[in-house]
Design goal:
Layout (H helix, E strand, L loop, with lengths): L2 E15 L2 E8 L8 E4 L3 E8 L7 E4 L25 E7 L5 E7 L9 E7 L13 E10 L4 H11 L8 E4 L13 H9 L21 E4 L4 E8 L5 E6 L4 E6 L2 E8 L2 E3 L4 E7 L6 E9 L11 E7 L20 H10 L18 E13 L14 E7 L2 E3 L7 H6 L29 H4 L2 E3 L2 E4 L3 E9 L8 E5 L4 E8 L4 H4 L10 E2 L1 E4 L3 E9 L3 E7 L2 H4 L4 E6 L20
Parallel strand pairs: 1-4, 3-8, 9-12, 11-19, 20-25, 22-23, 24-32
Antiparallel strand pairs: 1-2, 4-6, 5-7, 7-8, 9-10, 12-17, 13-16, 13-18, 14-15, 14-17, 18-19, 20-21, 25-30, 26-29, 26-31, 27-28, 27-30, 31-32
The protein binds CU-O-CU linkage.
GO molecular function: copper ion binding; hydroquinone:oxygen oxidoreductase activity
Family: Belongs to the multicopper oxidase family.
Enzyme class: oxidoreductase
Amino acid sequence: AGTIEQTFLVQTQVFNRLCKDQYTTVVNGSLPGPTIYANEGDTIIVHLINDSPYNMSIHWHGVKQTLSCWADGVAFITQCPIQPGQKFVYKFKLSGQEGTLWWHAHLGFYRATVYGAIVIYPKVGTSYPFSKPDEEQLIILGEWWNRNVTELQDELDETGVGPDSSDANLINGFPGDMYSCSLSSDRRRRFLKNQENSSLELSDVGSYPEPGTFRLKVTSGKTYLLRIISASLNPCIFFKIANHNMVIVATDASYTNPFNTDVIIISPGQTIDVLLTANQPPGLYYMTTSVFVNSHVQFRDIPGTAILEYEDVGIFQSVPKLPNIPSHYDRDLFYNSMKHLTSLVSSPFWTPVPLEVDENMFITIGLGFQPCNSRNPNQICAFLEYRMAGSLSNITFKLPTKMSILEAHYNKVDGIYTNNFPNNPPLTFDFTDERYMFDLEKLMTELGTKVKRLKYNSTVEIVFQSTTLFTAENHPMHLHGFNFHILGHGFGNYSPLKHQEKLNLVNPVLASTVSVPGNGWVVIRFRANNPGVWFLHCHNEGHLAIGLATVFIVEDGPTSSTSLPKPPEDYPRC
Ligand code: C2O
């Protein structure tokens, strides 16, 4: 296996989007940042140089980091931030996974613009478990704010609310035609209304083609592997291509049985690899990203767009066809997609579901309140004396500030965290009963840096139960350091009597992010065979920022090859 060595230079520079200049923090001057291309088994070395005015850390999302927790890149969990003017070398191996992953800043809201792809090709000498695509293309879904992300962060730190929905959805860094500066809101509305019959006139489109819009040029008959990444901060996304179906072949760098669909449903943090065949009449077709919302929060109803362009079609010959954009509230469409996907168990990287469980955890997910102590007299707390807080089993996670949890664990330093994250929530009630939505007693959370310790190689089952507390929102739960099996999901309260029987123990999807339905549940299992300190959190950045997180500490195994190695020499300290 080889070694891939890259330099990531973090800088803040001016980008123009939505007709406005904006100071933007990016890696190597590009948005999205550089892609890491590697084969399974390769070692990755990234020299991170922080030339921005902000603290930084980079996380390699979905990378299992076997025995390399020091490189996981989570500020205050596995390392202290890399300060302005400082460097750090991230070194880790990509093993036991193939497909698409990504990297992003793991500190505050910087991941809004500090992100890029990781492409893991099959191990040298092997090939895909599906017929080889003619070409490959990254599709990176992001968001854009017409404000400096640092401001958004400050606002949220004060009030616990925010950020407001972003100003645009991006595809490979650009919002596309529907955000064209020359498009009046009236024409934009007409444009969207026309999607059903796709009878658009050139005059309906702004300055089509909008400069920068991503265009995927295809040749009739060829097959393309699209590696779709959701770098979106908060919303779940429906991704469609007019007139074209896609076949899902992998998710979170783990192969699935081929699954044919006309819509890709992707939560923040997830990656989905699909095959697309250019089998439609040569022409222009829009790819769209639209938002799924499952509570009545503010959201943007204008899709981001890119264009699928068949060879030999002149740019001005026609306006691209629009797909039918799903309803923003189509909860059934959203969650049904989870039902049908199964793992490819013939993959060399498949691991069977642990059938014996050592740790049975039941974790409730909720939004609640903490006392507000706004330091800024101009900022009003969201709810008089209270600020919003996210919680797992009613505990709002507080990041340490003096030392990373990993360093404290490794050096056995007291006072940074406590080992008492519970296996069961302190409160039991009818979790999906809407009467409890505003029950102040249940809404007050406990603040703490409570972690759950796991014995090396123990097996863990987690039932995530979303509650009605405050609002029943969707939560894309992400676990670092592992791929877990997603055994089942449903709406309402989880009941072992009713649901245990139906869990898929045979070929469930392996993933590192799973969407827990608002007012619903998900069951996952994993084997704690990777020593280290692993963050578990909602990948909705607005929720993570208000403490919807916890930490697993996996203890060392019996031998040196099952124990955490020493920290790297240049390990950033606080
Ligand atoms: Cu993609 Cu903890 O994050």
